[in-house]
Specification:
There is one protein chain. By secondary structure, this protein is mostly helical. The chain has two domains: 2-128; 137-255, Leucine-rich repeat, LRR (right-handed beta-alpha superhelix), CATH 3.80.10.10. The protein is 67% helix and 5% strand. It has a four-stranded parallel beta sheet, with no helix packed on it.
């Protein structure tokens, strides 16, 4: 009877553990979908704004051309009428023609000026079409709630390389975290280079976990070069990153120099 109770308890514990894992995975998926939806909405808003600006420019240009056309027709009618009234005096007819010429020059200059103001140069267009700065409000909020010089756990948050820039600024530099857990994410060699650059002169981070990412052999030299300089990092977890003998050789050479790293 006691053995049966033990088996039941074990089964219940396994079910609870599986449910917890499933719930954690579902939560991460929902957070990832929310972040993707925010980025999509930001891109749509940017494109809509640019389309509205282009439409406004075209409307302004159309109104200007219509106004100029009406003025040209009215000027032609007025010119015909004045020429008819001054037919008896060549002198007055010359004055009318001179006024007409001045008016034509004025309209041409106005048209050129309007065209330059409504059609921006390529350099101006290039400035206005700056790429949207990457943001991850959920990630920033998690880091903001962490204490200074604490453990920041971002395991399984589906982080990508662009997120590492936020982690560097908010967690490593501002929060001065002592442990940074980035396991089970989607970080590649690019993200590893961001981390390496930030940790060269860092003296607060002691534990860095990068297990189950996509660093591969390409990302290892960034970290090993950093570890030849860094004097604070004591533990580095790189398991599950598809590291071959090439990456292992870089790690071996680094350990000949670095005496601080113990794990």
């Amino acid at each position: 009877m006691g053995g049966t109770v033990t088996k039941v308890r074990t089964s219940v514990a396994q079910v609870q553990e599986n449910m917890g894992t499933t719930l954690n995975t579902a939560t991460n998926m929902i957070n990832h979908l929310q972040r993707d939806a925010s980025n999509i909405m930001a891109n749509l808003a940017h494109e809509s704004l640019e389309s509205l600006r282009g439409l406004t420019t075209r409307v302004d240009r159309s109104v200007f051309l219509l106004t100029n056309t009406i003025m040209a027709i009215a000027t032609a009618i007025a010119l015909s009428f004045l020429l008819l009234l001054t037919s008896f005096s060549p002198f007055l007819r010359n004055i009318v023609w001179l006024m007409f010429a001045i008016l034509c020059i004025y309209m041409i200059l106005t048209y050129i000026q309007h065209s330059q103001s409504t059609l921006p140069s390529s350099s101006t267009t290039q400035v206005e079409e700056k790429p949207i700065i990457y943001q991850n409000a959920l990630l920033e909020n998690i880091i903001a709630q962490s204490n200074i010089q604490s453990v920041i756990d971002l395991t399984g948050h589906q982080l990508i390389d662009d997120d590492i820039k936020i982690v560097v600024t908010q967690a490593i530099i501002k929060k001065k975290c002592t442990q940074l857990k980035l396991g089970q994410n989607r970080i590649t060699s690019t993200g590893a280079s961001y981390l390496a650059d930030a940790l060269r002169q860092n003296n607060t981070l002691e534990v860095l976990s990068l297990w189950n990412n996509n660093l591969n052999d390409i990302g290892i030299p960034y970290l090993t070069d950093m570890l030849k300089i860094n004097k604070s990092l004591k533990k580095l977890d790189l398991s599950g990153n598809h590291i071959t003998n090439i990456g292992a050789m870089h790690l071996t050479n680094m350990l000949k120099i670095n005496r601080i790293l113990t794990h």
